[in-house]
Amino acid sequence: MIDHSYPTWLEVNLSAIEQNSRNVVQRTGVPLMAVVKANAYGHGSVEVSKAALAGGATWLGVARFGEARVLRQAGITAPILVLGMITPPEVDEAIAANVSVTLHSREVADMLSQRGKAVGKPVLAHLKIDTGIGRLGVQPGEVLELARYALSQGNIQIEGLFSHFAMADVEDHPLTAVQVSRFKGAVEALEQAGLLPRWVHLSNTAGTLVHPEARFTMVRAGSAVVGIWPFDHTPYPEYLRPALSWKARLASCKILPKGWGVGYGQEYILQQDEIIGVVPVGYGDGFRRQPGNEVLIDGRCVPVVGRVCMDQSMIRLPKAYPMGTEIVLLGKQGDAEISLDDLGKRWKTATVDVTAIINFRVPRIYVRD
Question: Residue 37 catalytic?
Fold first, then answer.
């Protein structure tokens, strides 16, 4: 167990992130935008960005400008694209920090042009097309008109064109081919008009890994970089490695008598004397209040009993363990493992949702092979 003072912590393997990034670049043969939004899916955006860039990523993608600000303040100079909304004051900061933004409507074009003129520098922008996910972006047939309009307003430099898959993680879903076709139509329209920018990107992690026809001049991958596999229908591949483990120390271990209740609501009543341990992790940390939770101790699975509290959870133990004994909530211990896929299925959510909402109060410890 790593020597530190925390009752619970995440261990993030930067060697795995570097290797994952390198393997994505090698498998696709095109530049990689490592998406590090939501604190790099809970792994820590600054350190993950540095590791991804060391592994060969060319760009970084974030959802909001505040996330780009954090990266710039950490000394990261690589190109960054804000994939979501940006406000007028943030546009000024983006221009100063050389951060690219998303252009998805005439209204946004007006705002970007006005702020660019006020600052006296062009705004770097990527055109966004909605090819079928129903979020930001113009219809594919409207992209040429938007490009011409934005350029006519002045102080906007269009350097990219992109869209986003809705169903690429579902095997043989017909919408994926439809989205590729719609996107290609928009690419051809801009190309024929002499307005096609350098960076053309459609694929998220799922599209990047299994749809080579959708790689264009760049791919975007976030979950793959941190070793999260987006598919249910295929096993975890050898070329990716999970980067995250979640650990804690046993806070208490005691024998409770038959008939004693455990936790809020007294949902768990002891049918006999039992050894009950306390783990200093709860739903306030991101450990969901769901039935069927388990943790690892001494290389074996033990059940969480009673309701998960905000800051603590109780477990039923086969024997007494000393305070400070290592507990694993996510990851391996000996021959036993609780994987992200296990937690995603248990909590009925996506694997990226499991890691992205782990609270900032859980310290991130960075390790290497």
Answer: yes
pTM comes to 0.95
Percent over 90 (pLDDT), the chain = 95
The predicted model gives 218-243 an average pLDDT of 92
User: φ, ψ for residue 320 (rounded to 5)?
Assistant: -80, 140
Class of the CATH-defined domain 14-221 = alpha beta
Backbone torsions φ then ψ of 192, nearest 5 degrees:
-65, -30
DSSP three-state, residue 288: coil
Nearest-CA neighbor of 47 among 6, 12, 2?
A: 12
Q: Give yes or no for a contact between 69 and 47, defined as CB atoms under 8 angstroms apart.
A: no
Q: Which one of 254, 258, 264, 345 is the catalytic residue?
A: 264
Identify the H or E element spanning 91.
helix 88-97
Q: What is the pLDDT of residues 266-285, one digit of tens each?
A: 999 999 999 999 999 999 99
With cut-offs at 50, 70 and 90, classify the pLDDT of residue 232: confident
CA angle, 43 as apex, 38 and 49 as ends, to 5°? 80
Catalytic residue among 6, 37, 128, 319: 37
Please give the DSSP secondary-structure letter assigned to residue 212. G
CATH superfamily for domain 244-338: Lyase, Ornithine Decarboxylase; Chain A, domain 1 (2.40.37.10)
Q: Report yes or no: 196 and 156 within 8 Å, Cβ to Cβ.
A: no
Among this protein's residues, is 345 annotated catalytic? no
Residue bearing tokens 């598919």: 231
**pLDDT confidence tier of residue 1, bands split at 50, 70 and 90:** low
CA dihedral 281, 286, 289, 292 (to 10 degrees): -80
Q: Are 217 and 190 in contact (CB under 8 A)?
A: no
Amino acid at residue number 228: I
* DSSP bridge partners of 35: 61
